[in-house]
Amino acid sequence: xxxxxxxxxxxxxxxxxxxxxxxxxxxxxxxxxxxxxxxxxxxxxxxxxxxxxxxxxxxxxxxxxxxxxxxxxxxxxxxxxxxxxxxxxxxxxxxxxxxxxxxxxxxxxxxxxxxxxxxxxxxxxxxxxxxxxxxxxxxxxxxxxxxxxxxxxxxxxxxxxxxxxxxxxxxxxxxxxxxxxxxxxxxxxxxxxxxxxxxxxxxxxxxxxxxxxxxxxxxxxxxxxxxxxxxxxxxxxxxxxxxxxxxxxxxxxx
Length: 254
Prior knowledge:
This protein is mostly beta strands. The chain is 14% helix and 40% strand. It has two domains: 2-121, SH3 Domains (SH3 type barrels), CATH 2.30.30; 128-251, Alpha-Beta Complex (endopeptidase fold (from Nostoc punctiforme)), CATH 3.90.1720.
């Protein structure tokens, strides 16, 4: 298996092997992928965390030797839990919430010293309270199709990175995430941390957000924001109208 690691702050994953192609997801610093094929400077990859596939520019990936990957397993795997943190090394990098660090196989002291109090060691033990606090760190982050970072993200990328930071792996897209967890049949029974999924006129799941209390949902729509949510859907405070129609509520145990 040919492995690669994201050694830049964030790397786009595209639908086709072209800089002009749609960005469908992103790799964050420290995340890994398997390279299936490569040609003309592009690699077709599978992201190890969620099995998502797409194309990355080869010069934006760090190819991993087998002994390096093995060396990493001897140390700690750490998740960055601040919205933006600078790590030091040959070149300083600003990395996003959700990035991954390893205490073996890279310049440990240079990387970890600035991260004091800003990281969580795997396996992560968390709570709904922490999940909500993490979500609120992203308030105002711009919407970006295919994004998964503090620099820009889409609705399902937002949810995926929140749950990753709290010890739970979710699929990449809302249409996949809706199949995870326990169904909550009545809006009145929903509570903080539950996921709300929304559909379009054709019945396709097109949006996801998370309840932060009994009445409000946090979601990425234009930017990460909080709006009222009831059994009809999301009521936008700015426009005074409903913007998303509720389809189903799911609970994922933290």
